[in-house]
Amino acid sequence: SGASGIPQAPKHVAAGIPGDLLRRRPDVRYAELQAAAQSSRIGLTKAELYPSFSIGGNFGVLAADTNGSDLGDLFSAGSKNAVFGPSFQWNLLNYGQITNAVRVQDALFQEAAVNYENTVLLAQREVEDELVSFVKGQDLVRLLGEAAQAAKKTVELSKIQYDGGATDYTTVINAQAALLEQEDALARARGSVPQALIGVYRALGGGWELGQTQDFVPEAVKEEMRRRTDWGALMAPVPAEDRAAKPGAEVVKPAW
Predict the structure, then answer these.
(1) Is residue 250 helix, strand or coil?
(2) DSSP code per residue over 188-222
(3) Of 5, 18, 4, whose CA–CA distance to 200 is shortest?
(4) What is the pLDDT of residues 164-187, one digit of tens each?
(5) pTM of the full predicted structure?
C-alpha cells in the first residue's frame, strides 16, 4: 500500500479529568480493591474480640447388641438418634494477641490507603502531563507552520534577487536548506500531536466509551454465569433512554 498522511488529531479535548475515568485504570482499580479488602480484614480480626454463638447438631442411627437390642435393628424406626444444641466461644485469654493482630491489620490498611492515594495522584499526573503535551504540541505546530511560511517567502525572495542579479545562487540554496529544515521540524511536530492524544487515552485507561446498547459481556460468558446463578434480566444491556433517566448509570463520554 502507498504512503499515508499524518493522522489528524482534534483541536480540543476534555479539559477536566473525571474521577470515574481514572478509576477505570487497572492500576487504580487494583490499589482500590486492595485497600477495600484490607479494610475488611480489620473487621474480621476485630470480630474475634467478641463472643460467638453457634448451633450445631447431628442425626444418625444407633443400635447395640445389649439390653434386648440387636444390631439388626440398626435401620428400624426406633434406632434414630439426634443431638443438637448451642455452643459459646469467647477468647478472653487471647485479648492481647487479638488486639495486636488488629493493630497489624490496621497498619496494613493504612499502607494500602496511602498506596491507593499515590496511585491516583500518579494517574492524574500522567493525564495532566499528556494533556499539556497535546496542547503545547498544537502550539508548536502553529509556530513552526508560521516559520515554514516565512522560510518559503524567503526562498521566493532569494530567487527574485538572483534573477535580478542582486545576489548569487548560494543565497537561494541556503534559503532552500532553511525551508527544508523548518518543514522537517513541522512534520515531526505534527506527528507528536496525535501521539500525545494517544497518551491521553492511555493515561485515562481507554475503552470507557460504550455504544448506545453495546453489551460488554460476551454471550458465552453470560450463558456460563446463568448456569451457575439466576441473574434474571440484570445482564441485559441498558437502553440509552434508561441511562439518561438514571444519572448514576449514565455513560461518561469524552468531549473529543
Answers:
(1) coil
(2) HHHHHHHHHHHHHHHHTTS-----SS---S-HHHH
(3) 18
(4) 888 899 999 999 999 999 999 999
(5) 0.57
